[in-house]
Design brief:
Layout lengths: L7 H6 L3 H24 L7 H17 L23 E3 L9 E2 L2 H15 L9 E7 L2 E8 L2 E7 L5 E3 L2 H4 L15 E9 L2 H13 L8 H9 L4 H6 L3 E10 L7 H10 L9 E3 L2 H14 L7 E8 L2 H7 L9 E5 L3 E14 L5 E12 L2 E7 L3 H5 L19 E6 L6 E6 L23 E2 L8 E2 L6 H12 L11 H9 L6 H10 L3 H6 L6 H13 L2 E3 H7 L7 H11 L2 H35 L5 H9 L4 H12 L5 H12 L1 H12 L2 E3 L15 E5 L7 H10 L3 E3 L8 E4 L5 H9 L2 E3 L1 H7 L4
The chain binds 8-methoxy-2,3-dimethylquinoxalin-5-ol (I6G).
8-methoxy-2,3-dimethylquinoxalin-5-ol binds next to β3 and β8.
């Protein structure tokens, strides 16, 4: 072998097993040193070509002698130190996300809704700031006595990751601020410019390292490096746009607060403007949209915020978004490509979802190879009512289709080009049985979706339920994501959520067995068991959401948790309501029949009598429980039915009970200071309110820890009755419920 011309592979082929073992050790040390020099010190120590040759030789030796592959093999590493995870930080004030507007009309509705909420006349002044929405990742910076003490990512909004050391390396982030409030939390977006992104990718690929799909991924990958030296070497930037905890207010308006942040040394976006009318807001949106291509960094829309901070505070928050702000997204990006196949995925509630497998195509800088086709009607070219969509054109395998994506949402197939349809392409036949378990796939009346009837027998439903269970807003078990759940499920290690908590015991030498699996080492196995143990204690609302019950999303789960407070109360009430669920369904049918009969006979329908006849057979206890659930503000009969159904199915119920037995469920605390006079009280508003809108009254009462119900019952503590109060006031009087007017309510809560 001529050492001058031999390739790395030739060199590997020439070694005996013993020599290969020694050489692999050598290579591991040398490559690790080169990695550190490059990533940590930003001072490459060997030329790129030499580095590549070492990596190739290492790979060739591992291919020849797989049993010699080292635990610290350079082929398993990207960059320097492998991620060990960041410490967690609980945000003192939740980091919210923003609601979205896609059309001009959505923006008009947003502004109208705010006026209505605040009770403002259509011509009363109401100004908004408008600024570009940077496509990066949110960061919260905490300053105490003028010094940066903590930087945290958004995470799930409540708990983020501590990336303080990395944030300190970003030039746009001041280490100290002068004349600032004692406690100052500045929130904003970390991003990477187009030019820096291109240069980074060029460097990465020259070194054979992973390149990034877009500037946002590059920014996230760079900020979330365990080694701050790597972050330092990556050119990140920061725009401030908001704040969290403050010991003193920054200003009285949003625009003045941004000016203040600016004077404290933060970058704020220069395209921010104050708009007096919706037309001004839309004009500024168009201006920013036009400037988009020349900004040098990615933006994906425009954010509008009510300028007056006192109004912002009156408007408050929904569960995860402020009422006073909205993101107006830029329109979707489009591309045409071939639809290669239609696959059916089975979701956690059994829904059969058609997925378009596409010839990969770049849409707005992202390669798209899958898109949703929604449901069988959508494929057939009709909507839920049977009316044609896309001019009635159906979608077939082999078709030339238009794909669009807007922001982060799943790409969609928007249109089909019939002139390009291959000869012989057959209409798509939507399956009538589950492709995963063969059970019947049934479409109920009024439902646009066909569902597998296999329940937990269906492996696809079981695994999707498990994925939902470990997802971020549910149990969020670090190290146990969708991929790991699929593996463990396929190998029969976990069939239901409770099995996760038995993993370590069941596989007696759990650590040993997990660590022997592909992709796991001793450290990651240990971390997994620790993360599972940490989640044995779980807040009630997360537990409810994690069960994956149909119609019970995060907001409904939070409403239920707030109302019932404990798991036992919720479960007992749902169990008691079980007999009423069927009656509610019968009552709906009977009411519809009575309406039809009355129309035929030309008389007024006797709805109250019809309902009463159905409910007469239902035990009082069941009826009261049903009314309690459906009386929770925001929870209707659909959610109540879904709960009753899930809790009433023996297999599902047994699985839930097994899970709860492994857990310590944290009761939901009343969300307010104990000294609020209405904390824990059930309040009903009726009649018209004059000093605030109903929505505002409800939000304020809830913020003070009251439960707001839509109906009066024996559990009601207080009725707030405005002019025009009708049957609710009468019922309250009959039940002896205390009734007060709006002024008395305001005086009671200290707003009078
Ligand atoms: O995610 C966001 C992007 C931009 C924001 C935001 C923003 O202002 C320009 N503002 C707020 C208040 C929030 N998220 C919650």
């Amino acid at each position: 072998m001529d050492p001058q011309t031999a390739t790395p592979e030739d060199r590997a082929a020439a070694l005996s097993e013993a020599e290969a073992k020694a050489r692999l050790e050598d290579l591991a040390t040398t490559i690790a040193r080169a990695d550190e020099a490059y990533h940590r010190d930003d001072a490459p120590w060997i030329p790129d070509a030499e580095y590549d040759a070492l990596k190739r030789e290492n790979a060739a030796l591992e291919a020849r002698f797989p049993h010699l592959k080292r635990r610290d093999s350079p082929s398993d590493r990207v960059g320097a130190a492998p991620a060990e995870g960041f410490a967690k930080v609980r945000h003192r004030m939740r980091m919210m996300s923003l609601g979205n507007a896609f059309e001009d009309e959505d923006l008009r509705d947003f502004v109208t809704g705010i006026r209505r909420y605040l009770g403002l006349a259509p011509d009363a002044p109401l100004a908004f700031t408008a600024e570009p929405k940077i496509d990066g990742l949110s960061l919260s910076l905490r300053y105490e006595d003028g010094r940066l003490v903590q930087a945290a990512t958004r995470g799930d909004g409540e708990v983020g990751e501590n990336v303080t050391a990395n944030a300190r390396t970003i030039a746009d982030i001041p280490q100290t601020v002068e004349d600032a409030p004692e406690v100052l939390e500045v929130r904003g977006e970390v991003y990477m410019s187009h030019a820096d992104f291109e240069a980074l990718n060029t460097r990465q690929s020259a070194r054979g390292d992973k390149t990034f799909a877009n500037p946002r991924n590059a920014a996230a990958g760079s900020l979330r490096q365990l080694d701050p030296a790597i972050t330092r070497a990556r050119p990140l930037r920061f725009f401030a746009y908001s704040w969290g905890e403050l010991s003193d207010p920054l200003a009285a308006t949003q625009i003045a607060a941004l000016d203040r942040l600016d004077s404290l040394g933060f970058q704020t976006n220069p395209l921010t403007e104050l708009c007096e009318t919706v037309d001004d807001m839309l004009a500024h949106y168009r201006q920013i949209e036009q400037a988009r291509a020349t900004l040098g960094y990615d933006i994906d829309g425009v954010v509008y915020k009510v300028d007056d901070l006192a109004l912002q505070s009156r408007l408050g928050f929904r569960s995860t978004t402020p009422r006073w702000a909205i993101a107006h997204k830029f329109p979707a990006e489009l591309a045409w490509t071939r639809l290669e196949a239609i696959d059916i995925q089975v979701g956690r509630t059994g829904a059969l979802s058609p997925v378009a497998r596409l010839k990969p195509v770049t849409v707005g800088g992202v390669v798209v190879s899958n898109a949703t086709l929604h449901n069988e009607d959508y494929i057939a070219g009709r909507d839920a009512t049977g009316a044609p969509i896309r001019g009635g054109k159906d979608i077939r395998e082999g078709d030339w289709v238009q794909v669009y994506r807007a922001g982060d949402v799943i790409p969609k197939v928007a249109d089909v080009d019939l002139s390009n349809r291959p000869e012989g392409a057959a209409p798509y036949a939507f399956p009538a049985t589950c492709p995963q378990c063969g059970s019947d796939a049934v479409r109920e009346e009024g439902d646009s979706v066909r569902r597998c009837t296999g329940g937990l027998v269906c492996p696809a439903q079981a695994v999707e339920k498990l994925k939902h269970f470990v997802s971020r807003s549910a149990f969020d078990i670090e190290g146990l994501g969708a991929k790991q759940v699929e593996q463990f499920h396929a190998d029969g290690w976990i069939a239901e959520p409770a099995d996760i908590f038995a993993l370590q015991d069941r596989y007696g030498s759990g650590l040993q067995q997990v660590k022997n699996r592909e992709g796991w080492g001793e450290k990651s196995a240990e971390n997994l068991f620790r993360a599972i143990e940490e989640k044995r204690t779980i807040p009630l609302k997360r537990l409810i959401f994690s069960l994956g019950i149909r119609h019970v999303g995060e907001v409904a789960a939070a409403d239920l948790a707030r109302h019932f407070g404990t798991w036992d109360k919720l479960a007992q009430t749902v169990d008691r309501a079980a007999r009423a669920g069927a009656a509610a369904r019968r009552a709906e049918d009977a009411v519809a029949a009575e309406r039809a009969a009355a129309a035929d006979e030309g008389r007024k329908p006797r709805l109250a009598d019809t309902k009463a006849a159905v409910w007469a057979d239902v035990p009082q206890e069941a009826r009261a429980a049903w009314e309690e659930i459906t009386g929770i503000d925001g929870i209707g009969a659909t959610v109540a039915q879904a709960l009753v159904t899930a809790f009433g199915q023996p297999r599902e119920r047994a699985s839930i009970d097994r899970l709860v037995a492994c857990l310590e469920v944290e009761p939901e605390a009343a969300p307010t200071a104990a000294d609020s006079p209405v904390a824990g009280k059930t309040v009903v508003f009726t009649g018209s309110l004059e000093k605030m809108t109903r929505a505002e009254a409800k939000a304020r009462a809830e913020a003070l820890g009251a439960k707001v119900s839509g109906s009066v019952s024996a559990k009601t503590d207080l009725l707030v009755a405005g002019p025009g109060a009708g049957s609710k006031a009468k019922k309250a009087a009959d039940l002896g419920v205390e009734t007060i007017d709006e002024d008395a309510w305001l005086a009671l809560i200290g707003d009078g």
